[in-house]
What does this fold into?
Amino acid sequence: MCGIIGIVGKSPVNQAIYDGLTVLQHRGQDAAGIMTCENTNLYLRKDNGLVRDVLKTRHMLNLKGNMGIGHVRYPTAGCSSSAEAQPFYVNSPYGITLAHNGNLVNAEPLKEDLMRDDLRHLNTNSDSEVLLNILAHELNKIGKHRSKLNPDDIFDAVGRLHQRCKGGYAAVAMITGIGILGFRDPNGIRPIVFGERKTDIGTESIIASESVAVDALDFQLIRDIEPGEAVFISVEGEIFTRQCADNIKYSPCIFEYVYLARPDSIIDGISVYKARLRMGETLARKILKLYPTHDIDVVIPIPDSSRTAALSLANEMGITYREGFVKNRYIPRTFIMPGQNVRKKSVRQKLNAINLEFKNKNVLLVDDSIVRGTTSKEIVQMAKEAGAKRVYIASAAPPVRHPNVYGIDMPSVSELIAYDRNIEEVAITIGADWLVYQDIDDLISSAQKGNKLISEFDASCFTGKYVTGDIDADYLARLESLRNDAMKESQNIDEGLTDLTNNQ
It folds into this structure.
């Protein structure tokens, strides 16, 4: 769940990439970076922090050139060190820069191959650096001088990359002085789109994680990059496309529609906003079926992602909708924060209850999903402290009981509140009087109605069925040992000590 963007323009692109990254900030608040290219000169600025904090005016003035890529990071693999901020760069061949969203499930064997057979050195633990070096190695095989490299050569390299890399990934890569490449895994798990805009001095092109970035920069959306497809935009602005994978299937991540994407985005032809409206309607019908004589006085969303579903749910049930929480927009999304203690503290910093909307009322709180349960437990307590008589919760998504391995930070089953608990036990754990989850079939139907050509979604965190078909118990056990909260907190301590040592 990172945000990526690439622009080939007719004038300096630094401001447009910056603006695009701010629109994609919801996809990652851990780090940000931009690399631009002027002729064959490269200019980089990246660091930990939000876009506005990493990229100051003095940095922007140094980001020269009419071509560039950008990234906002939310870490799932590797660690949160500033050394792993993106874009990544490798010198040979041509000078290639890459920004990546997703997760490679075979990163470890690929690292061994790169160092043993491909004779490439890796500087970080990030699978994005692995992806970059695989692309570089496959381009190097072509053996052509920069002036002779053509789009078909690049697409051939992407095809070989698809054969080697497994998992969910969408990426933009900049080949110095040649152009920008965008590509997507053969299952289409992570989103990526491209578009163009006409200007007085020529046509400019963009590749981005979500259509909202295309819209906000006044580009016209052309379409999503299809599973296994690559799009190459030459430095002159010409667009080339080719299907680069043999076995493809459309399996976009259902969690994009539940939580990750902005509601004003359209992903794979599906309006995120309308999908969430339908989620609220189907959830309302389930509540009415389970509790036909309910005593709910008011429906209140847990901001922000659940607002759309909560509004349609309230309308479907004929119950008053109210805003009961005020959100501090300067606190990042809590479930993606490293460490349970940080997440718990941040809930109270992020939300404050409007007491008069809760006092002496039976309240139905609507959330987009319940992952670790940290937010839900704290919010139920806040509602009761504000005077609610009874507090019910409805989740627009089914119970999250399995790790997500394709780029969302749900790696450790022991940290998922619904793992090894039934619904009643989850309700007790978070302090709710009752809890209703969305059914998986209704969730899929809510998204699928937007594009009936998509017959399958990656819903692995709900079902445990992994669309790449290569995830076993051993892999999940290794993943948990590397990416649980205890390990992350240990890494953060180590990184802090390293930074102190380096600064002395």
